[in-house]
Design a protein that fits this description.
Shape: globular
Distance between the termini: 27 Å
Number of strands: 13
Bound molecules: pyridoxal-5'-phosphate
Strand content: 5-15%
Largest sheet: 7 strands, mixed
Structural class: alpha/beta
Number of helices: 16
Length: about 425
């Protein structure tokens, strides 16, 4: 999925220079003009969201509807990030030896506050892969233990489960979640049926990456716990996208990537581990003797691009200024805006539930008779719309994943709808 290159599609990387970078003050000013309007109503106000769009430096060559990989930084965050790069470089080892760790802790505390958990339960990592793989690899497995995963889980974690299967002699069972569940019970029963007395851990996506389907993780967690099974939640796609607190999801472990919906610089993530489980996980990088306890045991990383940690603070400022509720309402509106226009069109298959409570920004659409890869290529070359092809029959998905962002306008989605209709009728 990550291997499709623009160079391969003949598009050059041209940079547009921004004469006067947008600032957080501009955002505050914009918000103040619309502060009386409720988020659900504001979600449909193109004028306001055109103002948000002006906070980004966007490549004009195509409509970027592949924000599921990562969310580019709005200009105020990007400018702050660049300042942090310069400042850390200016201070050098002095920074690293004096305030580095306190600054990181302070940012982690803000992330924990947003996630509604304690600072003793959350650390900053580089991404969801690192966070979840740390738990999968570090779990105190015994031969014959069982774990449950889904075909719809992210391939990197599935690969790590395969590795621990070989290494520790455990059994990993794969379930498959329906694309269009009729009820929460439909999803919960899929996981419950795979549980045996030997099941120790279950991995559950808060939002499936290929389709954008949101899963009822709290109910799944409660069910799993009633069988004595621990739950690891992959929230790569929901932190700073769908409002929630980490504890209310009921998981024992939770991870997210901050370069996705928080729009932090690339290479930022979080790991949450419930206090009672922290001592039993083997750290990926061993701690020097006695130097750390609690979740800090799992966070001995070596030297990292620490300016990224600092910019997470700016991304948090941006997110809270824009408003979590405004953002979520807009993203859900945009998904519903385009999917509702094509769900009934012959030849078009939407792989994401219609119920707005079972998703938010992301949806997946296929066209009968067109391979997903060809569909993505035609969307880009013929219609100047960038998406990603998902050709993954084992997970019931053949189509393109469409992920708008807060800078996406409905005119771009109208282009997408016209393109889908055109391709479907030409291929009928
Ligand atoms: C559901 C899910 N989990 C995990 C990941 C891995 O995220 P990262 O590459 O930031 O580690 C992704 C990436 O798209 C994802 O969609």
């Amino acid at each position: 999925m990550k291997s499709m290159t623009l160079a391969g599609l003949g598009l050059p990387f041209a940079q547009k220079s921004d004469p006067r970078p947008a600032t957080l003050a501009d955002l505050k000013d914009l918000i103040s003009q619309y502060s009386e309007i409720a988020p659900a109503t504001l979600a449909e106000n193109e004028e306001f969201w055109t103002g948000i769009r002006a906070q980004y430096n966007l490549k004009p060559d195509y409509a970027n509807l592949e924000n599921g990989y990562y969310n580019i930084q709005p200009t105020p965050v990007l400018e702050a990030f660049l300042r942090h790069v310069k400042d850390v470089n200016y201070e050098g080892a002095f920074y690293m030896r004096t305030v580095q760790f306190d600054r990181k802790k302070a940012i982690a505390a803000r992330l924990a506050a947003l996630g509604g958990c304690t600072t003793e339960e959350l650390v900053i990592t580089r991404n969801t892969t690192e966070s979840l793989d740390m738990i999968i690899a570090g779990y105190p497995w015994k031969p014959g233990d069982e774990a449950i995963v889904a075909e719809q889980d992210y391939p990197a974690m599935l690969a790590m489960f395969r590795q621990v299967e070989k290494r520790h002699g455990i059994i990993v069972k794969r379930v498959s979640v329906p694309n269009h569940p009729a009820s929460d019970a439909d999803v919960i029963s899929v996981y419950e049926q795979a549980i045996t007395p030997r099941t120790r851990l279950m991995m559950v996506c808060h939002m499936i990456n290929n389709t954008g389907q949101g899963l009822p993780v709290r109910k799944i967690s409660d069910m799993a716990h009633s069988h004595g099974v621990e739950v690891m939640i992959d929230a790569a796609h929901t932190y700073a996208h769908i409002r929630h607190t980490i504890p209310e999801l009921g998981g024992d472990y939770y991870a997210a990537s901050l370069h996705k919906w928080l729009s932090a610089p690339l290479g930022a993530g979080i790991l949450y581990v419930k206090k009672e489980h922290q001592a039993k996980i083997w750290p990926l990088f061993a701690e020097p003797d006695g130097s750390a306890e609690g979740i800090a045991r799992l966070n001995h990383t070596g030297t990292l691009p620490v300016h990224t940690d600092l910019a997470i603070g700016d991304a948090l400022d941006y997110y809270t200024t824009l408003g979590a509720e405004r953002k979520e309402a807009r993203l859900r509106y945009l998904q519903q805006y385009w999917t509702s226009k094509i769900r009934d069109v012959p030849g078009i298959v939407v792989n994401t539930p219609a119920d707005p409570t079972r998703g938010c920004a992301i949806a997946n659409v296929g066209i009968k008779n067109i391979a997903p890869g060809d569909m993505a290529t035609r969307l880009l070359q013929q219609y100047r719309i960038y998406t990603v092809a998902i050709d993954y029959p084992a997970a019931n998905v053949r189509g393109c994943r469409i992920t708008p962002n807060v800078y996406t306008l409905t005119t771009e989605l109208d282009r997408l709808v016209a393109a889908l209709r055109g391709m479907a009728s030409a291929s009928a």
